[in-house]
Amino acid sequence: MKLTILGCHSATPRTNTNPTSQVLEIKNHMFLIDCGEGTQVELRRNKIKFSRIKHVFVSHLHGDHYYGLIGLVSTFTLLTRETPLHIYGPKGLKEVITLQLKLSDSWTNYPLVFHELTSKESELIYEDDKVEVHTIPLDHRIYTNGFLFKEKENERKLDINAVLNANISVAYYRKLKQGADVENEDGVLIKNETVTTSPIPSKSYAFCSDTVYNETIIPLIKKATALYHEATFLEKNKDLCKRTKHCTAKQAAIIAKKANVANLILGHFSTRYNGYDDFESEAKQEFDNVFLAKDGKVFEF
Amino acid sequence: MKLTILGCHSATPRTNTNPTSQVLEIKNHMFLIDCGEGTQVELRRNKIKFSRIKHVFVSHLHGDHYYGLIGLVSTFTLLTRETPLHIYGPKGLKEVITLQLKLSDSWTNYPLVFHELTSKESELIYEDDKVEVHTIPLDHRIYTNGFLFKEKENERKLDINAVLNANISVAYYRKLKQGADVENEDGVLIKNETVTTSPIPSKSYAFCSDTVYNETIIPLIKKATALYHEATFLEKNKDLCKRTKHCTAKQAAIIAKKANVANLILGHFSTRYNGYDDFESEAKQEFDNVFLAKDGKVFEF
């Protein structure tokens, strides 16, 4: 599981800071998460092949999370893309993208498939044989979702000596990996756990931005391999959180601790600060495995 | 008159090329012309104060000419701007900008004034005591205008010796500068041209992008101090011009020659080329004063 941060700053793009966008590589997918202005340039800078992006997840319709999407959609057209692009995001996204295509008297030469979100409950919005994506309803100034990307449970591992000793036909190995008990060549029922071992734990990534401190997300992100949680402010500016519906680094860390995640990545930093070391130290008072997002940084889990 | 090129490339932004945008400083105005994705960052990079921009002129609704506008409008809000922003561009621009503001459940805290264009004839769209802005109808795939920025005629200069010899009252100097004949202290009518000299020639800048080769613009841009004309292709790719409704460098130079402008700036280069020297040499076969636009380059006239 590999996460590339294209942008991790709030509000407006500057010469040295990009608004929110990231790419999660998981089970051969390249999921684009949020798409602030300039995302297509950051994708190029980070040498991520446009053609590998087939799904875009948009948290909410504040500009720093999606103003780059129409440019990316248009560029895909100019590059004569044919592969469908699936866009998951709040209701309204389809209208604004299609209006801009209409005004330019053009359409994509590839299928553009919108999956508009309106539910305030967590939903399964994407699924294949290897991965699931669920929404994480967040509490921000407008309708907002985080996203939980989960590898499906891996297959159990055969204890090959035990399997051979138990005299099980090769034809049943598949069933064993899926966790079933099987009959051996002598007609005896063999309990699965006696001939297999636990699967490699499946990984998960929770993206939670933007949101006010909100404990209701904890059951949804429980034990995630990595949690990206917004930390727009430091505790010294906590008074700004209530009005803007953002979090401090400390609050993000408390969520990480309560959800018992393995790793916490902080991002969506306000550009009012000159550096972000204080975000790390503030969060580490609550939680150990804290990392700071940085434009262009790659995390591998 | 000072022109700063923020971006001069066609189609999609890349790590080292920006789509169309430029700032014209004329008679204390800072006119923003077109606003491709990333314009707000290029404004910062070129140290142009956001607060000085009060008028934005959008040629047409292809993304490489306006996808950066909504980001700029939003950033002005975050920076608590109060000064009105006037936006001149094709019908539809208001709908797309206001839809995005509505979806983010926000509005600007400054007046946003749209001047939507629909005419196929040249129009005077802005005027004050020093400057006029006229549209230049262009022929592109969708409704497109260039813009002519003109200083108003300067005042005639007094030939102070001649004025004193003619025994004219100081009270009439203003009228003389404005070109009127006046009576002197002895009641004799003094012809204006005997006591004044021609004014400093007023300057003008014509922005023409995007367009196919189109001689109907020539009377509108006649004798401009500077003409920015699109030159998307070289003659060797001339076959692409007809379908895409763009020009070659040579065609731009022919327009410059026929319009008898003082200087020609070429831009809107296709990113298919590795360098742009051939654009200059191709154009110079038709016209001498050719300059190449370049992101970040400043022209003073």
UniProtKB/TrEMBL annotation, chains A, B:
Top-level enzyme category: hydrolase
Keywords: Endonuclease, Hydrolase, Metal-binding, Nuclease, tRNA processing, Zinc
Details of cofactor binding: Binds 2 Zn(2+) ions.
SUPFAM superfamilies: Metallo-hydrolase/oxidoreductase (SSF56281)
InterPro entries reported in the protein's UniProt record: RibonucZ/Hydroxyglut_hydro, RNase_Z/BN
Names of the cofactor(s): Zn(2+)
Keyword Metal-binding: yes
Reactions the enzyme catalyzes: Endonucleolytic cleavage of RNA, removing extra 3' nucleotides from tRNA precursor, generating 3' termini of tRNAs. A 3'-hydroxy group is left at the tRNA terminus and a 5'-phosphoryl group is left at the trailer molecule
Catalytic-site annotation from UniProt: 64 (proton acceptor)
Binding positions for Zn(2+) 2 per the UniProt entry: 64-65, 210, 268
EC number assigned by the record: 3.1.26.11
Residues holding Zn(2+) 1: 60, 62, 140, 210
Single annotated GO MF: zinc ion binding
Coiled coil, from the record: none
Pfam families referenced in this protein's UniProt entry, alphabetically: Anti-Pycsar_Apyc1
Protein family: Belongs to the RNase Z family.
Subunit structure of this chain's protein: Homodimer.
Functional note: Zinc phosphodiesterase, which displays some tRNA 3'-processing endonuclease activity. Probably involved in tRNA maturation, by removing a 3'-trailer from precursor tRNA.
Protein name according to UniProt: Ribonuclease Z
Annotated organism of origin: Winogradskyella flava
